[in-house]
Amino acid sequence: MASITRALRPLSRTTPSARLASKRLATVRPVQSAYAFSTTPRRREADLSELTPTPISLLSETESMMADMVSKFASEQIGPKVRDMDEAETMDPAVVEGLFEQGVMGIEIPEEFGGAGMNFTAAIVAIEELARIDPSVSVMVDVHNTLVNTAIMKYGDAQAHRTWLPKLSTGTVGSFCLSEPVSGSDAFALQTKAEKTADGYKINGSKMWITNAMESGIFIVFANLNPSAGYKGITAFIVEKGTPGFSIAKKEKKLGIRASSTCVLNFDDVVIPKSNILGEEGKGYKIAIEILNEGRIGIAAQMTGLALGAWEHAARYVWNDRKQFGQLIGEFQGMQHQIAQAYTEIAAARALVYNAARKKEAGQDFVKDAAMAKLYASQVAGRVAGSAVEWMGGMGFVREGIAEKMFRDSKIGAIYEGTSNIQLQTIAKMLQKQYTN
Ligand SMILES: Cc1cc2nc3c(=O)[nH]c(=O)nc-3n(C[C@H](O)[C@H](O)[C@H](O)COP(=O)(O)OP(=O)(O)OC[C@H]3O[C@@H](n4cnc5c(N)ncnc54)[C@H](O)[C@@H]3O)c2cc1C
Question: Which helix (H) or strand (E) holds 12?
């Protein structure tokens, strides 16, 4: 009940500062210090039956403040570095430090553990705002918050909370290690093995495609403790950087989100204490499924922000800078229709994202909504970023602006945290169940 009231309370009223998310596009207000976000909104008991439904794009005051703060930080502190980080295929450590200072690496972590104690939608708007400027930084924050922090908050015991959450909210980046060379879409075919030792576990195997690996200090690793039980042997463990036998074998060179590190990890007789298990033995598959269901909403937010960033970049160019045939190119009706169509699709993607986030917060079944949001937002991101390149002509194709980068970055939306085919499969399965007599 408490989480429901918390999620819906802001939507039940209209304050001068609560406003439609779409208005964020036009204004960036001066923002209070990041410490403003350390205050957990008070939970109030409310009679939910009396709530008046409000627009899905309406944000609470704290969510709105989060969006503004992240937007300001992203344009001022990340914006100037985006091109260099992409060219160097490296995340600037000052950006990571800034993200921790701003409080966006522990958005949902309770204040007692150094986090901001905010809600899931606050994390979603932060991910979206970061992606408007740099989808690479956005995915770092996304994986850290929606996969790693959430998994530890949800499945860790009191000791795990005390051990890991303060680190994750104040300075240590996290990674979520499920995929392997042999297991991608078929995630639970993973081959990494764990065995029990006298006072803990020993892990052997390798992981592939691990986001944040170069920056991370904490890795959630899925390994099979009982291969004869199939996926029911899969268990989640926490491995710290520097543990003997743990190594980064390779850093991938990629098409897009190049500042985000993606690595192959090796585990050779990596011994960890008993306390580093996350959740129960054999429950790793459940943890992975549940966490990725939520995480998908984050990727959908990343893709929505990316689409908006590409759209805004091109819209400013066609409506302010470039003239052909004696007029601004954005004044041609052929251009205007495309620009309007793209913006409408972005708004539709955002509605799916926020709806999935609100349903999750309200404790409703959101799995189909999350899959639809990710599928559609990544399609919109691909279309809009591609159009942005075309609307800018040659200037969209060169590396002076961000259109070509957003276009490259958009491709990943259809691949990680479940490919588009896998989202379609989830949606179809749930629909079939609903419509089968
Ligand atoms: C940049 C990047 C970052 C990543 N970060 C992480 C991370 O942090 N942690 C992590 O664990 N993993 C991560 N991944 C892995 C990612 O989740 C996988 O790449 C993804 O799940 C797809 O797996 P795959 O690459 O093996 O493709 P495959 O599973 O081989 O799929 C290839 C193609 O086959 C299709 N296909 C497969 N099975 C079916 C089916 N049943 N029906 C229809 N079509 C199907 C797919 O849709 C796809 O088009 C990352 C990947 C990338 C590229």
Answer: none
Burial class (CB within 10 angstroms; exposed 0-12, middle 13-18, buried 19+) of 51: middle
Residue 376: band (very low, low, confident or very high) from pLDDT cuts 50, 70, 90: very high
Element (H, E) at 175: strand 173-177
Pocket perturbation via mutation, ligand 1, pick of 139, 142, 183, 209 by most ligand atoms within 8 A of CB: 209
Cβ 234 vs Cβ 284: under 8 Å = yes
- Let me know: does 145 contact 107? Beta carbons within 8 Å: yes
Mean pLDDT of 320-347: 98
Its pTM stands at 0.91
User: Distance (Å, rounded) from C-alpha 98 to C-alpha 187?
Assistant: 34
Decide if 105 contacts 114 (C-beta within 8 A). Answer: no
Can you read off the two tokens belonging to residue 282?
A: 């054999």
Q: Find the Cα–Cα–Cα–Cα dihedral 400, 406, 412, 417, rounded to 10°.
A: 130
Question: Where among 267, 284, 301 does a domain terminate?
Answer: 284
* pLDDT recorded at residue 49: 72
Q: How far apart are CA 345 and CA 329, in angstroms?
A: 21
88-108 mean pLDDT: 98
What is the domain-level CATH number for residue 350?
1.20.140.10
pLDDT of residue 48: 63
Q: How far apart are CA 143 and CA 271, in angstroms?
A: 25
Both 352 and 298 in one domain: the answer is yes
CA–CA gap between residue 344 and residue 358 (Å, rounded): 21
Q: Do 162 and 198 belong to one domain?
A: no
245 with 267: CB under 8 angstroms? yes
Which tokens hold the place of 158?
Answer: 């009191």
Q: Residues 314, 348: one domain? A: yes
- How many structural domains are present in the chain? 3
CA angle 219, 224, 225 (to 5 degrees): 105
Question: What average pLDDT does range 157-181 have in this prediction?
Answer: 98
CA dist., res. 176 & res. 157, Å (int): 18
183, 260, 415, 424: residue to mutate for ligand 1 pocket, most atoms within 8 A of CB: 415
SS3 assignment, position 244: coil
The Cα 62–Cα 72 span in angstroms is 15
Residues forming the active site: 417
Enumerate residues lining ligand 1, CB below 6 A.
143, 175-179, 184-185, 209-211, 254, 262, 412, 415-419, 421-422, 425
Q: How confident is the model at residue 47 (pLDDT cuts 50, 70, 90)?
A: low
